Amino acid sequence: xxxxxxxxxxxxxxxxxxxxxxxxxxxxxxxxxxxxxxxxxxxxxxxxxxxxxxxxxxxxxxxxxxxxxxxxxxxxxxxxxxxxxxxxxxxxxxxxxxxxxxxxxxxxxxxxxxxxxxxxxxxxxxxxxxxxxxxxxxxxxxxxxxxxxxxxxxxxxx
Length: 158
Known about the structure:
The chain is an alpha+beta fold. 34% of the residues lie in helices and 34% in strands. It has helices spanning 14-19, 34-41, 89-101, 130-155, and strands at residues 7-12, 20-30, 51-55, 58-62, 83-86, 104-114, 117-127. The model has no long low-confidence stretch (mean pLDDT 87).
């Protein structure tokens, strides 16, 4: 039986990068039940509306939806239960200080398998206002148009 290696993305939260300004990222392990891991191996999970909180010196991932495992029995898990994130004590203390500071949130960006273990990429983020989102979209469109124009100029087609 060969051991898994590398990184296989299960689910990513693309909307989080649009709604938040990412300041820092952390890789955290997550405490799961067996049926949750089996459901994740099928690629079934949703990070929409999920967030992390720091309570009592521990980091908890809330509102993460992992559907019940189809082949599970009475031992199946609750789909939206609160799950514990596994971080080093120094990282937790840093997160406590940052989240108490000002308007910063802990948002999961992605879940993936790393060498057979489930990991969560957690971001320390600040929420964007609607005008910030519009500016980011306009900037991205302008950069895309500049690269297209440069490509056309290089090919000699204005």
